[in-house]
Specification:
Layout (H helix, E strand, L loop, with lengths): L6 E18 L4 E14 L4 E6 L7 H15 L6 H11 L7 H21 L4 H4 L6 E6 L8 H13 L5 E5 L5 H15 L4 E5 L6 H10 L7 E3 L7 H10 L4 E3 L6 H9 L5 E2 L3 H4 L1 H15 L9 H8 L8 E3 L12 E3 L2 E3 L12 H6 L4
Parallel strand pairs: 4-10, 5-6, 6-7, 7-8, 8-9
Antiparallel strand pairs: 1-2, 2-3, 4-12, 11-12
Helix pairs in contact: 1-3, 2-3, 3-11, 5-6, 9-11
Length: 364
């Protein structure tokens, strides 16, 4: 077992994968899914691996050089995730701690945690003080803005992908009646026992949200997610005070302080940080302590492999968002069984790249 690691190099590579089910939301349609593969190489021969999912391909023009620059800047430093996280942030201090700066640091952080857990020959969840085990998950692989019949048929497919008991569907169609017809069609298809999460993807004005969210407030939904722009905490506080259905936000929190701010303003009932924005594993763990102190359930957003490990040590762990968009470039994707993501008993995150798939899907 290696006890200390020294950063030798960071290798960042851009790939673009064709989505099996394209993202069709009110704010965007995405058919190609960008990934940045990160290899944090150490002098001791251990490589930490992680990836970023920055939504739009052109963002990789900025993030790949940023990650490579961090490797040059931090070369020779001990791979201790928390000091490395702070050093990486400070190298970008004058351009701010949010946006692309935070995303690059988060990628470095996730790879660093993978490296030290590999060095300890432990799965990351065990290295963090937990145990290997299953994590309750919902399927977020589809159910975009299609016709009610198409969404209902797809809901049955998604349920069977892993015996799921929770599904997320997106709303925000031009006609409210079409949204309602979609919920009804999905409910009839999958039954009353299925937990349904609703995501508006920030598509609504405040006036629209006050109308539409109240109209679905008696449907027994698991949550209503991001009906208005992500940073309208005052508006979210108004909605949270009025609705019976839990209000979910958080995928756009840039760092733990934003999560704390939202909770202080009572802007939500649930939180679901995204790893590339919250600050990787370090940002998540700091945020989990805040959510735990408030007693607020905490779910993940994207990055199911990292999410599974940290959920095992999160006090208020709620739902893991499962989507398999990175699976094509992984040698051994995580398995789903009976609605739970199964953490493999492998050191670190246990991610290994399928190099032939990486080569075939290289971008840029």
């Amino acid at each position: 077992m290696v006890t200390t690691l020294t950063l030798r190099n960071i290798r960042a590579r851009a790939v673009s994968l064709t989505l099996q089910r394209p993202v069709v939301a009110k704010i965007a349609t995405i058919r190609q899914w960008p990934l940045i593969l990160i290899d944090l190489e150490t002098e001791e021969g251990i490589t930490g691996r992680a990836y970023l999912e920055p939504y739009i391909e052109k963002s990789m023009n900025y993030l790949v050089p940023a990650l490579n620059d961090l490797g040059d800047e931090l070369k020779g430093q001990p791979v201790a995730p928390i000091p490395l996280y702070e050093m990486a942030r400070k190298t970008l201090h004058f351009v701010g701690y949010e946006g692309l700066s935070m995303i690059a640091v988060a990628g470095l952080d996730m790879a660093a945690w993978d490296a030290v857990a590999r060095a300890a020959n432990q799965p990351l969840c065990a290295y963090l003080g937990g145990t290997v085990g299953p994590v309750t998950s919902y399927n977020s692989n589809g159910l975009w803005l299609q016709s009610p019949a198409e969404v209902a048929a797809e809901a049955l497919e998604l349920r069977e992908e892993g015996g799921f008991t929770g599904l997320k569907l997106r709303l925000g169609r031009e006609k409210i009646a079409d949204d309602h017809a979609t919920i009804d069609a999905v409910r009839q298809a999958v039954g009353d026992d299925m937990q349904l999460m609703i995501d508006y993807n920030q598509a609504l004005s405040m006036a629209d949200a006050l109308d539409r969210c109240h109209r679905i407030d008696d449907l027994g939904l698991a949550w209503i997610e991001e009906p208005v722009l992500y940073d309208n905490y005052e508006g979210y506080a108004q909605l949270a005070a009025q609705l019976k259905t839990p209000l979910q936000i958080g995928e756009n929190f840039y760092g733990p302080r934003e999560l704390h701010k939202a909770l202080r303003m009572r802007a939500c009932d649930l939180v679901m940080p995204d790893f590339m924005r919250i600050g990787g594993v370090t940002g998540w763990m700091r945020s989990a302590a805040i959510a735990g102190a408030w007693g607020v359930p905490m779910s993940t957003h994207l990055y199911p492999e990292v999410g599974a490990h940290v959920m095992r040590v999160t006090e208020t762990a709620h739902w893991l968002e499962w989507q398999n968009w990175a699976d094509p470039i992984l040698q051994e994707p995580y398995a789903v069984k009976d609605g739970e993501l199964v953490i493999p008993d492998r050191p670190g995150l246990g991610l290994e790249w399928d190099e032939s798939a990486v080569k075939a899907n290289a971008w840029g």
